[in-house]
Amino acid sequence: MSAALVEAGSATFILPPELEAHEPAEARGLARDEVRLLVSHLDHDRIDHARFTQLPDYLRRGDLLVVNASATINAALPARRGDGSVVALHLSQQLPSGMWSVELRRPTEDGTRPLLDAELGETLALPEGGSALLVAPYGASHRDGVRLWVATLHVPGALHEYLSRAGEPIRYGYVPRAWPPSAYQTIFATEPGSAEMPSAGRPFTARVLQALAKRGVRVAPIVLHTGVSSLEAHEPPYAERYRVSAATARAVNETRAAGGRIIAVGTTPTRALETVASPDGFIEPGEGWTDLVIDVTRGLYTVDALLTGLHEPRASHLALLESLAGADPLARAYDAALDARYLWHEFGDVHLLLPGAPQRRR
Predict the structure, then answer these.
(1) pLDDT tier at 7 (50, 70, 90 boundaries)?
(2) CB within 8 A of 336, min separation 6: which ones?
(3) Among 102, 135, 166, which residue terminates a domain?
(4) Residues 80 and 215 in one domain
């Protein structure tokens, strides 16, 4: 084990700042599909170092990739408080009531930090005469105050058109400059709704999809609209809106029946699929809100393998990965990624966790 891993078997580690991806691959002189691919062969404890263009080499005829078709919205808006101070308003999820869960963040020298001293009933001024009214705390409170709020938004015209003019994609301190919204969309994006990009799908390109099709690997979409992440608090994920269509449910069940593997492209398709899965792995179509948290005690019912980004220390996503890989193999994979200088976050490299045979429950 490298000294970078602080706690063996738990994937708790120190992430050096230089391994945070500060810009898209295209700005680093690479095509989207030329980011690095770390492959963990979980059945015989082997790790390969590859490029994403080689993904088809690691899959086989009859496998099914399940991808997230949610598109990233311009969820970050500049806002002004009553005292004149400027903050960032991050939209997270549109709630069934039509209101939004939102996060306020204050500017700092190295990015932004959650603003935890906002008050119930506070009104924030938004561009073009818009406003946001904080009407209630959302979810559990942070130990130092409220991190997420329920807010009513009043903006001129249709919301998504307003966001396209007045907002920008959410970014954190490790991305020092703004990038156009196109940098935050995947090739699968069709339905706007995600506060942050379903980034495991970002490296896919037409040439990779063509190579997968030639190999006999199919692709099926789900929709899960992601909320804001919590880089500071390491909280479990909040409830998110999802939809698994009848066509995708049929493709998953047919693939399983034929002995193929279900490979989720990201933790969001994993959450959606597992929400509608029975313990025997059979899935039904469904839509609504999911608050499912996947860890080793719950395990995975229908997902056999996972393509995902590299996650922050102590992030709740690591518990999901551990439910597939096991604690020690996951720690070894992250040790290898650190030693080989892989890049983290939404513009970084990706990790394929690949058991040799489908994990079928009896």
Answers:
(1) very low
(2) 38, 47, 49
(3) 166
(4) no
